[in-house]
Amino acid sequence: MARYLALLGSINVGGNRVTMGELREALEREDFEDVETVVASGNILFSYDERPSDGLAEMLAWIVKDRFDIDTFAAVRSKDELEAAIEGNPFVADGEENQVHTVFLDRPLDREAFERFAAGYTGPERIAPGEREFFVDFREGVGNSKLTQAMARTKLFDFRSTARNLRSLRRMLQKMGD
């Protein structure tokens, strides 16, 4: 069995409350094994027969919708995919690990739209494209950022996303083991 990380979006924000114990139980009923929540809400480690992570993402979103009536999506990554997302972040070397984020997407990034946005964006954040994610260095803090609103205003992007900081991603990767 392969080990995976699922990063659920929209869990325990707004009215979308679910305990991690309830979530673990729901996944175990659906043949997910070694289910463990880690770092914070919506981060789940699990074992499952090896398969493309996109199919597992759809399955997890369906389970959460069916069991808890929460419309979410899951960014699912194998250990190698998570390592690649961390190593591919160009801000790892010189950013603060609690300010450097990877924004995981529900589909491949529209690189052309991202590049058009980035060329005109004047905020303090540094941003860079990935494959199924993009990277942000919130140099002046996440709470002060206007990046999300600026992206929404452009209408260039049609994706769901969930972000995690570098510190959390490294801890999750470590928990995935060898």
TrEMBL record:
Listed Gene3D superfamilies: SP0830-like domains (3.30.70.1280)
InterPro entries: DUF1697
Signal peptide: none
Pfam families, A to Z: DUF1697
The protein's name in its UniProt record: DUF1697 domain-containing protein
